[in-house]
Design brief:
Number of helices of chain A: 1
Strand content of chain A: over 45%
Largest interface: A-B, 27 and 24 residues
Helix content of chain B: under 10%
Largest sheet of chain B: 6 strands, mixed
Order of helices and strands of chain A: EEEEEEEEEHEE
Oligomer: heterodimer
Radius of gyration of chain B: 14 Å
Distance between the termini of chain A: 35 Å
Structural class of chain B: mainly beta
Chain lengths: 115, 112
């Protein structure tokens, strides 16, 4: 297992288009997290899954955002009708058990640019 | 509102020049405080978890300490490969076990 994989690494899209990102966590990790990071800021929590159940969503996650984790394996994050304010690095992380106790393993992120 | 601040925003050190990074937090009750390292274009890498005031953790040239209101990341005799952004994060008692709040980070540059 080579860690958490995210695809694509970079995405440039026009305002109003839909985009989807994929995250493949470490296989034995049951928890999966999505964070968003803008330049000069720390990651901001978006949502997390325990197995296939989405257990918490941030108020940052507007109705244009949806995340899924079918069968408790990989996860997708979709943004509909993208806006320039959505430009950011989208980070996925996974953990075994409570992330705080064991530490999150982050992927390298997907950098989204909305033009 | 739970909040994490870090200082300085950026720090430039000569190789071998020891220093400390600060993380101040405001939470109603602290369940845990975490330090991560982030290299440009990569996701954060977990370093330490601290749970209670007085606790210390060490890893190579890094030592993290915790008080009731802040944490310090001490860097002893840094090397250029220690250059990175160091992120502090907290988990508050009133939040779920899986929600962690990150600070903005300190960008460290170590000059040979």
């Amino acid at each position: 297992d080579t860690g958490v994989s995210q695809d694509p690494r970079h995405k440039i899209t026009k305002r109003g288009q839909n985009v989807t990102f994929r995250c493949d966590p470490i296989s034995e990790h049951n928890r999966l997290y999505w964070y968003r990071q803008t330049l000069g800021q720390g990651p901001e929590f978006l949502t997390y899954f325990q197995n296939e159940a989405q257990l918490e969503k941030s108020r940052l996650l507007s109705d244009r955002f949806s995340a899924e984790r079918p069968k408790g394996s990989f996860s997708t994050l979709e943004i509909q009708r993208t806006e320039q304010g959505d430009s950011a690095m989208y980070l996925c992380a996974s953990s075994l058990g409570h992330g705080a106790n064991y530490g999150y393993t982050f992927g390298s992120g997907t950098r989204l640019t909305v033009v | 509102e739970d909040q994490v601040t870090q200082s300085p925003e950026a720090l430039r050190l000569q190789e071998g020049e020891s220093s400390s990074l600060n993380c101040s937090y405001t939470v109603s009750g602290l369940r845990g405080l975490f330090w991560y390292r982030q290299d440009p274009g990569k996701g954060p890498e977990f370093l330490f978890t601290l749970y209670s005031a007085g606790e210390e953790k060490e890893k190579e040239r890094l030592k993290a300490t915790l008080t009731k209101k802040e944490s310090f990341l001490h860097i002893t005799a840094p090397k250029p490969e220690d250059s990175a952004t160091y992120l502090c994060a907290v988990q508050a008692e009133e939040t779920s076990y899986d929600k962690v709040i990150f600070g903005p980070g300190t960008s460290l540059s170590v000059i040979p």
